[in-house]
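INTERNAL AUDIT FORM
Audit reference: QA-55
Scope: verify that the stored structure record matches its stored sequence.
Auditor: D.O.
Record contents follow.
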Amino acid sequence: MSAVSIYAEASPNPESMKFVLNANLLADGVSVDYPNLEAATNSPLAQELFGFDYVGRVFIAQNFVTVTKNQPELAWTQLIPELRQFLKSYVEAGGPIFLVDPAAEQKAAQAATAGDPTQQDGQIAQKVIDLLDNYVRPAVEQDGGNITFKSYHEGIVTVNLQGSCSGCPSATVTLKSGIENLLKRMVPEVQSVVAEGITV
């Protein structure tokens, strides 16, 4: 592995920091969110990060890792050098990021939760997924998080907020004023958007 450079980028969530690498960790459009160590069985990298006692959540996307701390009294200025050095050493040494490709894992999970929507619901859901992927996700990723589609039923879209979005003070506002307005405008059948994964 060639030299890895990493820089830290603040997110709207004061407890989350985004570490951007010049290396790909995942395929574009795939991301994983680990709210705790128990959830991180598929990622040796995330498990190692949870070894730092101040790490409360780990989110991994194409070329960045968002770390959410669970000790608000600790300043990021103390933590960034240690985390940046750890990530740099780990990736340069070729440490395993995942045991199983998360893309395959996510497809299986989506198929399992999709159930059996009516044809019309399926078409609406696909429109919503396209809008989220093309307009919402790139902006949310810039802030160190992710949004994934969970379900559409009788006008209600359920999404999952991950990474820095989970626990972000402005997540609910973004969800209602930004995402919900966009979806209602583009897909008239949508009446409201609700989110899982907000821990405020």
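Auditor finding: record pair retrieved intact. The chain has five helices and eight strands.
Action required: none
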